[in-house]
Amino acid sequence: MDSKRLLLFLTFALLVVPSPATASLRVFACEPEWASLVRQLLPDAAITTATTVWQDPHYIEARPSLIAAMRNADLAVCTGASLEAGWLPTLISRAANRAIRPGQPGLFMAADQVSLHQPHNHVDRSLGDVHPEGDPHLHLDPDKLPQVATALADRLIAIAPEQGRDIQRRLIQWRVQWNLQRAQWRQTAQSLEGMTLVVQHSNFGYLLRWLGVASGPDLEPKPGLPPTAAHLNQLLQDPQLEQAQGILVSSYQDRQPAEWLATRTGLPVLVMPGTVTGAVPTETLAALIDHILTSLKGLNRSEAARHAQVQEEAP
Asked: Which residue segment(s) compose the domain that 21 sits in?
């Protein structure tokens, strides 16, 4: 029996072993991606999610309902790397939950489990919204997610040891499926390598880098600063723009700057969820990556057809 079949057999064997019913763990998730990952490992958890796919996770209000949810939670799962610096410290302070404080087991930061891209030794306001720890938008990196999932499973087991066997078997199941899908994504990446996209912020940076897709001109003049008319006009003179196949923005971002540039360049605009939505076809992180790759493949084919048509029409 080869290793892949053996792993699948062990996963099935673990799945069929019944476990006694236990009380639901109360989890506070800062972003939908971590709520989704917790649900993969502990589907019975009672999860409160602070943000949605339509919100910029950098900026939300520390509402009373979120403070109450944090106060009653057994575990908080957040991105870290200063992504939530504008509101998470306030929630933690006002909730006064002894289990959920920096350095305590009840606060899990995904960014602490992996190495981040583009850390900075020196950060000041002139650079824009730059995170000294590195780019925090790691949740779409096919290689880093298994590291986060394993560390999260360990933390869940430490907090709820009576559910350890169930959590461990779901982690194995998740990793088997993730590895199979990652192999398929790698095949798809071969057809996308060398592609260039105009982007806004670094929401998809980890995935694009993994795919070999270049992030070309950025609609933001500096990280975290909204696009300006002056900057957009400068982009029209950027030589990289000639190599771009499309403009990629997140669903929570204002589409007007992307559409303004599109009308002047003919580039298509691709609006993608920056995180899971809980609904098909982007209900999980794996499904979201599938959806993004399928959309990029379609964009690549459309741009190739458009380029061929322009060549045919040229005198």
From this structure: 3-181
Per-10-residue mean pLDDT, the chain, length 315: 49 46 84 98 98 95 96 98 96 97 97 91 57 92 98 98 97 98 97 94 96 95 92 95 95 96 96 96 97 93 54 49
- The per-residue pLDDT for 135 is 94
Residue 188 lies inside a defined structural domain of this protein: no
What CATH number does the domain containing 260 carry?
3.40.50.1980
How much of the chain is helix, strand and coil, in % rounded to 5? 50, 10, 40
Q: What's the rounded Cα separation, in Å, for the pair 265 and 64? A: 46
CA distance 111 to 135: 9
Residues 234 and 151 both lie in one domain: no
Domain finish residue from 181, 214, 229: 181
Residue 80 lies in a domain: yes
Residue 201 and residue 76 share a domain: no
Is residue 186 assigned to a domain?
no
Please state, in angstroms and rounded to a whole number, the distance separating the CA atoms of residues 52 and 252: 9
Residues 24 and 105 in one domain: yes
How far apart are the C-alpha atoms of 195 and 244, rounded to whole Å? 7
Could you give the strand order of the β-sheet that contains 107-109, starting from the edge strand earlier in sequence? 46-49, 26-29, 75-78, 107-109
The answer to whether residue 187 is domain-embedded is no
Q: How far, in Å, are 25, 234, 242, 245 from residue 239 at the CA level?
A: 53, 11, 6, 13
pTM, entire model: 0.88
Question: Of 143, 219, 205, 207, which is closest to residue 175 (Cα–Cα)?
Answer: 143
CA 114 vs CA 54, 105, 222, 267: distances in Å: 26, 17, 25, 35
Which residues 6+ apart lie within 8 Å of 289 measured at CB? 140, 142, 181, 185, 207
